[in-house]
Each structure stands twice: as C-alpha cells, then as structure tokens.
## 1
Amino acid sequence: MSELNFATLDVFTDTRFKGNPLAIVQIPSNLTLGQIRKQAIASEFNLSETVFLHHGNGEYLKNTRIDIFTTSAEIPFAGHPTIGTICYLCADRGPPPDFVDRFTLHTKAGPVAASFDHATRSATADIPHNVKLHQSSVHWKYILELQPSLLQGQVGEELEGWTRRYDGSEAEFPIVSIVDGMSFVLVRLPLVDKYLDKLRSNQGALIPGVAKLDEGWATGFLGLYYYVILPDEGDEIVRIRARMIEQDAGEDPATGSAASALASHLSLTEFERRQSTCTCTYEIVQGVEIGRGSKLVVKVILADDGNSVKQVLLTGSAVTVMQGSLAS
C-alpha cells in the first residue's frame, strides 16, 4: 500500500480558517489512480472540492495536470481549486519578491494560463469560458419560496416593490453558464442588511425543471448565486457582496466559477462602458455570513464590439492549513 502526500488550503484568503477549504492530493507520475479511488478520497475529505495533482516529468510546473472532484462527482473546472493549486505550487518556491511565475495548468476543461505574483502572493487564472445567457429565467416568486425569510414584514413589501420593473412587470433572474456544465441563477438583491443577510444556507435547492437551460447545454452543476452591488466608491472597481447557496451542500464560502459568471454577465449587460478599454474589474466578497470571509477579484475583458467576452481573469490568495499523507 502506497502513501500519497496531501495538503489542505484555505483559498481566496490570506488568513487560516477563513476562505474556502481545499484538499490537494499529489499523484506521483509512476502511479495510476482510478476514478473510483479518487472519488472515495474526495468523499473522505468531505470538502466542496478535492484536487488530484499530477506532476509532469522534467521541469517543475511543466505539464502539470489537475483533476477536480466534489464529494459526488468529477467536474471539468472550478475556480477555487485552480487558484488554490497555483498558490500551492508556487508560494514557497523562494524566487525574488518581484518575480512572477507563469505556466500552463491543464484541466479537463482545457489548458489554463496561470501566474503567481510573489510580491502580492496572489494567483491569477485565465478562466476557460463560453459565457451563455439562457433564454429561460427564474421568477422572483420562486426565489421567495426558497427563502421565505425574505417575506417577513416590511422587508417583504420592500422587496416586492423592488422586484417590479419600470413597466410594472415582475422581475425574473437570469440563468448564466460560464462553461457548459457550470451554470448559475444570478439573483440580485437590493441591500446587504435586510436581504442578503437574511438568506438561510439550509434552504435553496432548485427543483429540476424550474431553471431550464437552452437545448444542447448540459445541466451539470446548477447553483443559486445571490448578490448585492455595493455603492460606487469613485474608482473603476465594481464591489459586490455575494452568497452561494448550493443545492446539496449548504453555503459555499467562495465560488470562483459563479463569480466569473456574474462578472461576465454584468460586463455584457451593465458595466460594459465603464472603461474605454472594455475591461471591467470586480471585487467580490463572499462567505462573511458563515464566518469564512473570502475575496475574489475578477477582471473581464470584452471583445472590441462589446458583445462577447474575450477573457476572464480570476485572482485570489491561499494559505496552507494542514499537510500529511494518506493511504492510497
């Protein structure tokens, strides 16, 4: 029986016991680990994601590949495992403080251009994307059924007024995919207090069929991403507070794929003219309500015509919490 080295990290934070936990298991090049065993290990860690890190032969960081597993299935890509892996590979390499590591990280969704800035100790990933706004949407009254606490007293009356459009019609929330198989209902709320703070993390499962994707798009993962756009501070950064209520696992402290989907959607629909370069930057704080505050930075670069997303850059930090070995 062989042993595999592993580490756990808290991602999208520089403070231990904050951010989103991640397990990384190193797989030696001379070992083949099957899907069933990988799934069993991910279930044993019982974190939102576990990364299996395959090092290529030869030069360090060259041909590095990762497989990402939730507790129930393998997924092609996710933001916090990618950022966490980049930090894990680069943070302790010891180059000069002004040095930036640049390499390619291979995922099931395709190659990801990765970098680690040793001055800021932050990782950036060029996110694989195929941004899709689906024709269907989710009516706000269905969201209220999932989160009945939003209906209490005056708060419920205020929210009902806020969800009516200028023409008197009732608001519906968009369904956006960042890639095929990773989709989110983007639920905008008016304020952090009274609304975002009132959400309950033990509620919120989407009933199959309520959120319909366009034909040919895999359902895969479908989550609810609640957010509030904070007041403008006079710079060109859009600041957001967010909460991710997952279908089975409760609340996620930080969700890079959801943050990327939201930033892409807002860039295409609301903030595409904020900068002449068609570049929008978002600072998203998530996980505060469950005591695991996280900060994600997403930069979206639009095509010259402003009608499509050219590039999505996700940036964040990570800190190692535990290291050890497990029997494979």
## 2
Amino acid sequence: MTATSLKAGRFALRRVAQGKCLLLNSIKGRKKSSASSSANSSATVEDGKTIPTPNSVAPFPLWQRLGPVSTAFGAYARSQRNRPYWTQFGTSLVIYFCGDLAAQSLGDEDYNPWRTMRNVIIGGTCSIPAYKWFIYLGESFNYTSKILSLGTKVVVNQIVFTPLFNSYFFGMQSMLSGDGPMQAWERIKQTVPISFINSCKLWPAITAFSFTYILPQYRALFAGDDHPFTF
C-alpha cells in the first residue's frame, strides 16, 4: 500500500510539473508574439509607412477619374512640363482663334478671317512674355502674411501688366490693320484708359483667384490671355 501511495504521489507530481511547463511555454509564446508585434509596429512608425487598408487609401481626385478627359489633361500637363514655351505658344493660338470666332459670331457683320489672323498673331507674340511675367509675379512679393502677398500681386499686376498689355493689344491691332505709328498711338490713347478702368471692375478678383487656386504654369493662360475678350 505504501508502494502504491508513492507511485500515486510521483504521478501527481509529474502532472503538476508538466502543467507548469505548459503554462511557462504559453507565457513565453505570448511574450514573443507581443515583442514581435511591437517591433513591427515600431519599424513601421520609424519608416513612416503604414499598411494601406480600404479605409485609409485616399480616393483619386475627381479630375483623374473622368476617363478620356483625364487622359487629355494628363497629356497636356506632361507637355507643359517638358515643353512649356511651345505649349504656351500653341495654347495661346487656340485661345485667340476661338475667342475671335466667338466674338465675331455675336456681331451682325460677316466673318472677317483677317481679323482672326490678327488676333492669332497678337496672341502668339505675347504668349511667352505673359507666361514669364506670371511666373515672376508668383515668385515675388511673398511675405509672411498671405493676404498681404496676394494683395500686392493683384495691385502690381493691375498697375504694371494691364496697361502694358492693353497698349500692346490695341497698338498691334491698329498696326496690323494698316495704320501708321501715329495712328496706332492715337488709338492707344483713346482705348487704353477706358479699358484699364473697365478691367478694374473684374480682373483684380480673377487675378486673386488665379494666384490662390491655379498652378503657376497655367496662370498666364487663365488670366493673361483672356484680357482682350473682356474690354
């Protein structure tokens, strides 16, 4: 009976020892898993990368989800980056061509192709200077106050660019129509002051919008090339 009791005691001790080993192994496994998870998490934070999930992936902007329209805009943006001057020049030709067609269609007179040609020449000639001007203006007059910077750009553009551009536009219109220098000068004196006053009603707001929301490389096309159609 004593031998049986000893065997039973030994068996019970072995079961207790086995249970302790299983418990220790389970605890060690949890610690290793926790340490591995913590290491992966810290590595992710250090690398500045996170695993994307459906809720964390931002959707594409609307203009990138318009099919053929998005493709056309993407091709134009690539052309603007690779060949900015040629892109500005070609776009100005199209803008002035279409603008004059629209202006003549609103009148009662017959279509005059020579007038369209004059506008295309004027637009193509001023495209690069206008582009350089708006790039320069965007890089200048940048203060700590965004409102002060924007207001200064609007005022400088209105005082410097607008009268010079209007003088060029009306002077070239006169010269290409066959007038001499004196006649062109008289036309400038008659039209530029009035056009400058009229532009003050609209263009400061358009210039402010341009420097707030339009990318620098597109500002000349958005603002500068539309001046002759708002006189």
